[in-house]
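Box 3.1 A note on notation
Throughout this textbook, protein chains are presented in two layers. The first layer is the amino acid sequence; the second is a token string describing backbone geometry. Keep the layers aligned when reading.
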Amino acid sequence: MSDLLQEYKEYYAVRAQRYANNENYHNSYEAEKKLSDAMQSCNQLEEFKQKMGNLNQLCAVALVKDQNLMENAFFNEYKEIVRAAVSERILGKVDQYEEVMDLIKMTNEEETRGMREISCDEANRIFHHLWKMLDLYEVYSMAVVPSSYQSKMQEGAQEYKSSITKGVESTHEQMVHWDPNFKLNPDIVTEHRHRRLLPFKDEHIAEQLQKFKQIINL
């Protein structure tokens, strides 16, 4: 056996071994093991081209599958359903591919789509950023003050209301570039991925949401 053939055999054996006994890379190990077995069966290096077939490309498919299985499990554990949807779509398609370039194209398309979906989903957190303005609007609009200060307080309330509506309008203008059908959905902030960022009681959030929707006419 030539030294070069032995080196190739050792190389492919190590490629497979790095995934051995790692449950997160089960598919990669199986694919790499098949490729290594093909290499180990060669008596001459020239045989490998025929025996390899598309096994090398299937290793790439297996790795994409393993990576997205891990990503999907992680995001589902933390109830990040919009982010988890990206890996779910990739996993639903990955076994259709045997050519690496086609696989790369598909995953890039799904990840780009996912970035747009995540941006539109998280745009609803404008509610989080406007929380203090909602409080100030309520303070100024409901303040009990001498008559000489009433117009000033109402003027302040209108300024805060205007800032809230302008913030929503600006958010909408930005998001329609990513999704022409984008529409703000305030109630979505009660879902876990958004709710976890609000350090308030449910009843307080419900009050603020009602106020918010009234101001922006939703």
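The radius of gyration is 28 Å. The first helix runs from residue 3 to 17.
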